[in-house]
Amino acid sequence: MTSLISGPFPRLCSRLTHATSSSRQLRYPASSRRHLSVHPVAGSLGAEVRDVDLTRLHENPGWVREIREAFLDHQVIFFRNQDLEPGAFLTFASHFGKAVEYPFVKGIEGFPEIIRVLKQEHETVNFGGIWHSDTSYQQTPPLGSVLLGEETPPYGGDTLFANQYAAYDSLSDGLKETLAGLKGVNTSAKADASKTREDRIRDSGNPTLAESFEAVHPVVRTHPETGKKALYVNVAHTARFDGWTEEESAPLLRFLFHHQIRPEYTCRFSWNVGSIAFWDNRCVQHNPINDYNGFRRNMLRITLAGDTPR
Length: 310
Known about the structure:
Elements: E1 37-40, E2 47-50, H1 61-74, E3 76-79, H2 86-94, E4 99-100, E5 114-119, E6 144-151, E7 159-163, H3 164-169, H4 173-180, E8 183-187, H5 191-195, H6 198-204, E9 214-218, E10 220-222, E11 229-231, E12 238-241, H7 246-259, E13 266-269, E14 276-280, E15 284-288, E16 297-304
Parallel strand pairs: 2-3
Antiparallel strand pairs: 1-2, 3-14, 4-16, 5-16, 6-14, 6-16, 7-13, 7-15, 8-9, 8-12, 10-11
């Protein structure tokens, strides 16, 4: 099936009227015919796509288009009860972009584009356990990420997501003007983030990996498909503003890091075996909650190639 990654896509009409509803509005008209059942999970972002078998997308091209629309409209979408082997999981993700290898961790056997996100019973630090936008330290950060639950704890292990359109829209005009001219220096070496990778690098690290990555991106980026502006800094990877020292950058970054994860901008997803989350890395941050020590959580993740932030 031809990938739907390029070109404009029709949008879903807004389903809710709420304080942050403008963050869901895209520029394109909705498809005239609907096949899938899409249910928002929170006021700012997130929706569950129900009653769909993702192994049958090749038989239903209309589903692919509608899933893409839901993804752009709601920024993160969820599926339940999907029985996908790695090959089928990769096929699903490939309908929406090009799967690429994660820089720090080797892929699973036979599928270099799929990594295992694992926290074992004896471990106390979880992988990526801090608010972040995936690999913003790369020159072309990913379009999005797709995560599949293989083993989940009996409780805990939820993931939070935060709407960065809403975070930007709610800033004052004066601060928007200040941020418009700034770029952030993003690095893979910030201590809090690098610590969450240590166990996975130790057991499945990439031996050809450079020690660290660094990239400079606009603090406010424009989404290449919706045309909307989103905050694009994150506490895990943004170290300072370009041309500023870390000390000079710290007060404003501290404000932005706190502001962009305000509760009204977030949604929360509880995992089960067979659950899938697919989020838009260009306008969403996420944070896997580390509240299940003593239990095993085993997920598969695919990263989709993105573009240079502008």
